[in-house]
Amino acid sequence: MSETASVRVGHCCPDAPNVDVHVDGEIAFEDVPFETISEYAELPAESHEIAVTPHGDDEAVLDLTVELEADRAYSALATGMLAEVECTVFTDAPGDVAADQTHVRFVHASPDAPAVDVRVANGGPTLCEDIEFRSASEYVPVDAGSYDLEVVPHGSDDVALSLPDTEVDGGTAVSAIAVGQANDDSLSAVFADDTQ
What is the DSSP letter of 39? Predict the structure, then answer.
């Protein structure tokens, strides 16, 4: 049996239509809308050709080769505006999570937002800071429960995105992915389960 890796894709390009994701010439993910993160799919741990096309179209807006390592998990996100779209690949490695905790990371996929900090509202701790576009924080262990989170420009107290009543379950890992744009108030967050 060949070794495999887990791969999921995310559509984080605000002005792109629904897309199809082709792996080695075959459609692997079809009709993926903006703000959607797919489930993980198993692929052989080797080099793969990835092409992203508008749904039903054959002309790729994004072509790349990815090298997958065995027993690893990856998130491949289409980021930026369509004219400058790129595929940003993250390794999903939250580690061993205690039953009463969650490992949380923040992924910055908003093309016009500055570097940001993520903190617990009302004077709570800062969970991660200075996260730039197309980058992600480390995984941060937090106690399972409900949190009011805020995303602010790095070093600022101006709340760019409020995430009240964010529930995190014990024994799980989560990516909070900022999508949309700051300049048209479409900034939001998509939560993806990183638990393998």
Answer: P
